[in-house]
Amino acid sequence: MLFRKLFQVLVVGGAVLGTGANSGCSTPASAQQPEKKGDGGAQASTQGTDAGTPDAGSGSGVQGW
Amino acid sequence: MTEALRRAAAEAWAFRTRVELEAARRFARLAGTVAAFDPDSPVPALLREAAQDERRHAALCAALTAAYGRTPPGETADALIAPQALDPRSAALYEMVAACCITETESVATLSTLLSEEAEPEVERVLREIARDEVAHGRMGWAHLAREAASGDVTFLSPLIPAMLSGTVGDGLFAPAGPDLESRELLRHGVLPHSQKRATFTGTLRGVVFPGLEKFGIDCGPARAWLSAREQS
Questions:
Q1: Which of B15, B80, B88, B134 would suit a FRET pair with B60, their CA atoms being 20 to 30 Å apart?
Q2: What is the ipTM for the molecules in this complex?
Q3: What domain range is B101 assigned to?
Q4: Where residue B54 sits, what CATH number does that domain have?
Q5: How many structural domains are present in chain B?
Q6: Contacts B143 to A, Cβ<8 Å
Q7: What does pTM read for this prediction?
Q8: Measuring CA to CA, which residue among B212, B201, B206, B205 is closest to residue B154?
Q9: Residues of chain B whose pLDDT is less than 50?
Q10: Cα distance from A22 to chain B (closest Cα, Å)?
């Protein structure tokens, strides 16, 4: 129940805030245009996607509560 | 309160002081970055407001750190976390997803869980004040992701999510903890027992973060595999 509520408040609410869309979850442009930003695609091809440890230079995350 | 519990509470609030200070710097920087390529976005103004919120949160956390007998940490460096190869716009999206869609969303879940339990009056006051703002901070990330997904391709993030998650929590979260860190007495001091912290983290990923990212076309297969691997380790 908590997670469902958080999804509505944060994900859907945030999307509406950002785009003004009614659903907040319209079809992403990625489904319409295959181009990629930066070289994220190249990054993707060189990184493990099998739950492995990230490579050096592959970025990190933000610690929180 | 035992000495071990006091130390655990002090450590938790000191850690929170540091992450709030880091968030203040990150949000202030990202406000300028996002405004440069998306001047019509509501997100930069929210980021500037959030930076001020985080300074206030850090002061609240520092006061509790001191109350539990530990010297609060001071200013921290502004850590850039995006892969260096990403262009500035993609790097900003990476940071917004890592800092807001993942970390702030996890923070809201943690705060909600803590507020469902009985806490010391001053702890509860601090938790409530911070929780009110963290909802807005989480929304900022989803708002920015929605805008970027509406105007371009965000699927490049898919294989990068595991790195974000690895930087969000240490592997220690998935290891057993001693009785001091599992004590439910910690809840009165605003700290989740270790196993409850892990359950909140994983539940929020599966119930909020992963479905949210997938709504915008980001495949969470790598992220789900990352989580499963740690749960089985």
A1: B80
A2: 0.94
A3: 3-232
A4: 1.20.1260.10
A5: 1
A6: 14-15, 17-19
A7: 0.89
A8: B212
A9: none
A10: 12
